[in-house]
Design goal:
Mean pLDDT: 82
Shape: elongated
Number of domains: 2
Number of strands: 7
Order of helices and strands: EEEHHHHHHEEEE
Strand content: 15-25%
Radius of gyration: 23 Å
Low-confidence stretches: 146-177
Distance between the termini: 66 Å
Number of helices: 6
Structural class: alpha+beta
Helix content: 25-40%
Length: 187
């Protein structure tokens, strides 16, 4: 492997070494959380700095620490939700009306999703009806996302009348087995 020589950005010395460093991040509830990262320290001038790789690792460690504390979905689980619908990251962002590269950052673990986005992801996880409603509300026909195979008929209730809308067509969704109802506790 061809490793690039790291020089101190302050004095230019190559007398640098990687050392562990405790970092802190504050959760939304105000709790301070600690995690450990690797930084580079100059043996000549004492400057402490991140390489690009260390900076990304620090972002991931901070986000993971907060994600765990706040009970948010993991990057792998977010990717699994997107994969379930057979969408690219850009298509998933459009369907959920997210900014460009948001899903990339969530799935790479460098940024954590907020509680509201997490709740939306939980609502659409394995639920094509909910996903279709969200995509349609965001101005997308699911067929334009390259997914079909399911016909979902939704109804709009206005006062005491129900008006059927056009069915939403899906081509490539996996079939979801219904979850059996939980048995009521016997008293």
């Amino acid at each position: 492997m061809n490793e690039r020589q790291v020089l101190c950005p302050v004095c230019g010395s190559n007398e640098v070494r990687v050392v562990p460093m405790a970092r802190r991040v504050r959760a939304q509830d105000g709790t301070e959380l600690e995690f450990t990262v690797s930084i580079t320290k100059c043996g000549r001038c004492g400057e402490e700095f991140y390489t690009r790789e260390q900076s990304l690792a620090s972002s991931r460690a901070s986000a993971a620490t907060l994600r765990e504390r706040e009970g948010l979905l993991s990057p792998d689980r977010i990717r699994a939700i997107r994969d379930f619908y057979g969408l690219t990251q850009a298509e998933f962002e459009k369907a959920l009306r997210l900014g460009p590269k948001t899903v990339v950052r969530w799935e790479s673990g460098t940024v954590r999703q907020g509680a509201t986005a997490n709740s939306l992801l939980l609502a659409i996880e394995g639920n094509p009806v909910a996903f279709a409603k969200v995509a349609e509300a965001n101005g997308l026909e699911p067929a334009t996302l390259g997914v079909s195979g399911y016909t979902i008929v939704s109804k709009v209730v206005s006062g005491s009348t129900s008006v059927a809308r056009e069915p939403i067509q899906f081509r490539n969704f996996r079939k979801v087995k219904p979850v059996p109802p939980k048995k009521a506790a016997m008293g």
